[in-house]
Structures are given as structure tokens and as C-alpha cells.
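Before our next group meeting I need something from you. Please put the record directly below this note.
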Amino acid sequence: MTDIPVSHQHRSIPSGAVFAFFAMTFAITWGLVSIYIFAPDWAVSAFGEISGSHPFFFLATWSPAISAIIVVLFFSGLAGLKGFFARLFLVRGSVMWAGFIFVGIPIVFAIGSLLKGGPTLAPVPAEGSGALVSLLFMMLFLGPVEEFGWRGVAQPILQRHMAPLWAGAIIGTIWGIWHIPAFFLSNTVFASWSFLPFLLGNITLAILVTPIFNRARGSLLWPMLFHWQLINPFWPDAQPYDTWILVGVTIIVVWWNRDSMLTRKNVATEVVPGEGRISQ
């Protein structure tokens, strides 16, 4: 293969970079949240009450993306970072998975809510439906941004060395543990949740999004839309039934796609598109 001119090259992201990614992700989130856990009075007086709309909450949520950007910039430079962000605009994928994201996930929440005697849609708040729409767009800049890290850096690197099923399970476990400090904050939604079912849900979701990610050949668009649907404020509270339904769906998906989930054939392994084809 002809070497790319030096001026147009970017270095590939080494596999060891995943450890730096995880370390920075935990350091940012746990560092910020620990201020409110260990010095709550001082933190509130200095920075204000923590909540889901607090700037620190956004920074803590964005830590996987921030860490991913640092890793890509360090190893691959601005050219690599540009290619990394370009993965967000790759529309490739399948109609089946698009249907699951836009239709299947809402159905899961509706069924789960009905099983616990709830509504099929979240109740409209006193402020009106406009408040839900505003929250919907705010959510677009919270959870989905995490995918720059989980599916942007961690998934392709881990899939260089293991089958997608195990890569997804590892990311899901780390993803769940990463949330632990939020369970000690009284002003966040996590305060009323139990951690072990939450961890199981994280592992389930990380495995479930894996075939979506690989079918789209590394696109970040579909994992982000998947994540957005999971926190869509229009869907009702369906816990714990939504988790159990998704566990069942994930088992079926893994079995149905066992050839691609249990082998490394045709998996996405590039953090920066084209890095595997560039001479080092």
C-alpha cells in the first residue's frame, strides 16, 4: 500500500489508550461529584445545589466525551479529531435497527408501564407539553454525548481483542460503576434507585447497542439516538419491567446475531476512520 504523505497522516489510536480513557472518565466524574459527597455544605455554598441542570452535572455526564476527545487529540491530532467527529454523521445502518430505536424502545416503555398499572406516555407536567419538549432537547446534550466515549473509543478498541458480546458487557459494567457517586446525591434521579438492578440494566443496554454499532460500521449516530430514546421524557416510568423486557430482548438479539456477537468478524475497530489503513 502506498504511504500517505506525512502532512496528511494521523497516527492510529493504540489499544492501551483505553486505560487512559477510563481513568480520565472516572477522575472527572468522581472528582466533581465527590465534592458534594464529602464536603456538601462547602460545595453548596461555593457552587450551588447540585441538580440535573447544574453545570457540574453536565461536566460529570460529559466526562466520557471529554476523555475521548483528549485521547484522540493526543494520539491523532486535529486531523484525527476531525475524522473522529465525522463518525457522528455516518447514517449507514439498517432499517430494522432504526425501527427498533424509534418504535421498539417506546413500546418497551409503554408495556413496562402498563404492567405496573401506569400510563403509556409520561403525564404532561403542569407547565404544559412545551416543558417536555424542552427537556427532550436538553436530554440530547446529556446522555447521548457519553457515546463519544463508550462507543467512540472504548468499543472499537476492546473489539480489537475480544468478541463484541464481551466488549459490550465490560463497557456496561464500567458504565454502571461510573454512575455510583450519583446514587449519593439527593437531588438527582439516581438517589431513589437501587444500584444492582441499575447495573444489570447498564450491562444489558451496552450489549444491546453493540450490534447496532457494528451494523452501522462504527457510526456514532445510531448509538446516540438509542441512548436518547432511553432517557426520552415522553416515555413513562416503567421500572423495573422495562429492564426485564430489555433483558429478554437482549438475550434474543444475542442468540439471533450469535455469529457476529461471538466472533470478531466484521466488527468496528477504528476510533478514527481509516486509521487501520494508514502506515505507521
Residues 1-8 have pLDDT under 50 and may be disordered. Residues 208 and 250 are 5 Å apart (CA to CA). The two ends are 12 Å apart (CA to CA). The first helix runs from residue 17 to 38.
